[in-house]
Design goal:
The protein has 463 residues and is an alpha/beta fold. It has 20 helices and twelve strands. The protein has three domains: 2-140, Rossmann fold, CATH 3.40.50; 148-248, PAS domain (Beta-Lactamase), CATH 3.30.450.20; 254-450, Hypothetical protein af1432, CATH 1.10.3210. It has helices at residues 10-22, 35-44, 61-66, 85-94, 104-108, 110-146, 166-172, 177-182, 185-188, 191-205, 250-283, 291-305, 310-321, 332-335, 343-350, 352-360, 369-375, 396-411, 422-431, 439-450, and strands at residues 2-6, 28-32, 49-53, 55-56, 59-60, 76-80, 98-101, 151-155, 161-164, 212-218, 224-236, 239-248. The protein has a five-stranded parallel sheet, sandwiched between helices. Strands 9-8-12-11-10 form a five-stranded antiparallel sheet. The chain starts with a strand and ends in a 13-residue tail after the last helix. The mean pLDDT is 86.
Amino acid sequence: MNILLLEDEPAHAEAVRRALEASGLKAVVQVAGTLREYHEAVAARPPDIALLDMILPDGRALDVLTSLPDACPFPILIMTSYGNEQTAVMAMKAGALDYIVKSPESFDTMPHAVERALREWNVLQERKRAEEGLHKMEENYRRSLDGSPLGMRIVTAEGDTLYANKAILDLYGFESLKELNKTLLKDRYAPQNYAEHKNRKIQRQKADFPSESEIRIVRKNGEVCILQVFRKEVLWNGGKQHQALYLDITARKMAEERLIETLRLLRQAITSTIQVVGLMVEARDPYTAGHQQRTTILAEAIAREMGWPPEKIEGLHMAGLVHDVGKISIPAEILSKPTKLTPGEYELVKTHAERGYEILKDVDFPWPLAEIVYEHHERMDGSGYPRGLKGDDILMEARILSVSDTMEAMVSHRPYRPGQGVNTALAEVEKNKGILYDAAVAETCLKLFREKRFSFPARNFSY
């Protein structure tokens, strides 16, 4: 270890040198008596540590510290025979690592002071390197943010902006971070989104905030811009802050909204077309007018009671409105015959399920309407028609229509018989629950009528 001792008193220098060389430090002590000799020694061979007397023939030791353009590359301990608290503070502020009052006792303990100073110096240097590394990482991070095409802000937990890159300033239409911070937060949000922002702020304070959200901001020129925001915790200037990343999705959202509106109009057109088809079928059979609508009403009620989602119920609704569309191919005189059908006529009527399937199968509906129509007369035990399907081979929509179709047909008047009443129809469903009809569907139907007082629209049938 190379120790540089700056001491103009030969006796003091010798005492310190002997104490250091006699210790376990394995030190080589170089002695300088003036500031000029000190600087020459440092230039020739920088020491591992320097011990400087405060008062020297050609100046003060503090001048060594205050004259340095940067931090000293090695630790310095200041020594003096006339120390006081004020001098100690001055030395430490100037950059000295420690301050020692010279005495015979301090000369003997000088090796311990040197060891302690070197340990502290190593700790400080390690911390400095870590801080410099962190600072370099933050600078690289900042440069990457500056050039990012995505909007970026660094914000505190309270929402104050510490940093904003050019992309986010451009999104808002601001010239600088100062202008962004000067604009009130409520003026940067669309009114409805500002209320949502306040709610998200409450969630953040509870440490339960979503990492992704969608906001609508108001640009400087008054335009509304839709942004997708991603938040995460980051280290910024040595403290934990939040990074907010902004993606402009205005064009995409507008296209989505146009598409949604187009789909709504298409769905509306499909609904209207299906309703017209259903009315065409019923126009040929005045005695069963309204049958498809009333069957559909009960089918939807069963599906809702069973917890079906709206989109599936909508498909069931469409299927219900046209489940007898195949009857358009059956002669009107058979449909409205006032007497019981012959076996041959009944077989002809039974073809309406397959005829309905043939009519609908090539139309690209959002729901399997053709299959539902095809299966609505199938039965759980395989005794139905036209294919004799069993159990799970039958679509659930068809199983619901099977029950609602039976109920409506039994309570309604027909040319060849009067309505048989709700109680009779319920008895039929209960008797064949799990046999002809799906057990869960049948049970739900019974519950609707007996517990929730469901009723068909009061038209063309008796109770």
